[in-house]
Amino acid sequence: MTMVSPLRRPKNRPGKGLGWAGMFAVAMLALLAPAMPASSQEAARVSAVINLDKPGTKIDRNIYGQFAEHLGRGIYEGIWVGPGSRIPNVRGYRKDVLDALRKIHVPVVRWPGGCFSEVYDWRDGIGPRSRRPVRTRMNWDDVTDSNQFGTHEFLDFMELLGADAYVSGNVGSMSPRDMQLWLEYMTADNDSTLAKERRKNGRAKPWTIKYFGIGNETWGCGGNMLPAYAADVNARYSAFVKAPGSMGMIRVASGASVQGGGDYEAFTEAMMKHPGETEALSFHYYAMPMGRPKSEATGFSEAEWADVLDLARKMDPLLSQVEAIMDKYDAGRKMALFVDEWGAWYKLDRNAGPGEHHFQQNTLRDAMVAALTLDIFHRHTDRVKMANIAQMVNVLQAMILTQGDRMVLTPTYHVFDLYQPFMDATPYPALVATPDYVNGAIRMPMIDMSAARGKDGGLYVAIVNTDPGKPARVDTNLTGRASGQILTAPAMDTANTMAAPEAVRPQPFSGRQEGGRLVFDMPSKSIAVVRID
Largest CB tally within 10 Å, which of 123, 297, 389, 470? Predict the structure, then answer.
């Protein structure tokens, strides 16, 4: 049996344990914990205590951010079809995709990359679309980009969506002066030549740029830089990147990754020693194996199910390690940590056509990855202030898949929908005594939980059963009525397809009272979010 304690105190933080309230909660767990079942066919018995006496730092709504790169069909067909398209659109933006994203209240979108941003010249994407050049996407074979979707199209899309813009600047092949000129074009409200050019191109008032990235993956596709050199480059560029002070723009340093950045600890250390004028640091992590083959997106085994979930759960200790390094140089935690690329990454889809780079089907397993990762972010709210799943439409762990004029919402989309009450909510520790889900050498808690007080005053609880074959009975210390929705499916790789768009969709779910306490009966491989009144 494993004791899981979300909102656990990082090793480098002052204080010990959970205090008297936490000790009381642990004692309650011992009282609540029932005997383990004799038969493996019975529901596993789990005990959980939500400690309402220890509120944590607010869950920033930007943790539910998105990422849209010029990759595959992520932008073209996924978001942009052009105003002349027969696909229903709003000024060129797909109406079905726009409506679906509005429903989950996307808070922020990172654009134009990713590796694409490191070869991007912003001037290619302004002015009349008929005159824009066609460029080769250097990082993705010989695929071309028409530049029909540029600065105006992205920032107008953000206004339609009601989301903040996170623009990723190019330090790999653009000068600091060019980067600053792009910012001036977007944000100047004077009579400068660039402000006049923007007005001539159809935008009278300046846009608000809330976040600006100083490069992307400078350890890799952004320049193959060593840690100290990357920190120097970041300091140099950030000194020139300015927006009107009233905008309060946050500059984001290109941070480390486990998968491609060599020594991610040394990279983080270098950036924190010499952060320049940046106010946030990025971190990238994908639930994909290193040094061995990736899983198939569908048709996978239970061993691959367990492997990918285990990889997703590794986000937790990695964040703790990065935060510990940041705390050495920023004990007051003024520098935010943005996990601006995360998600599952599988083998290339066998049915993907030309130009469909990194298209992959999305299954119930991806919903699990999303829920487990969001729960992890809820435990790191002192430092993690933004996260951007990779990616929004048709690429990697997408919210939405499109094919011509058709669209499906993925299981990952449904998790983001279910978890909306956690945006800007106040988290509480959920102390869980749970048996482990075991597959071969992989072992993880069967039940993961997250709890928070929403902005509407309601108490919300998310419960994840990672075991694909066994249900669980979750006894809690909570009283009242609990109702919400649950996401599950007959098979581990059940997916929403054009032929079966609702194979995985939320269903009504509620808790029940037993002995004055709430009990939740969680099916195998399921995710539930309930409000408790």
Answer: 389
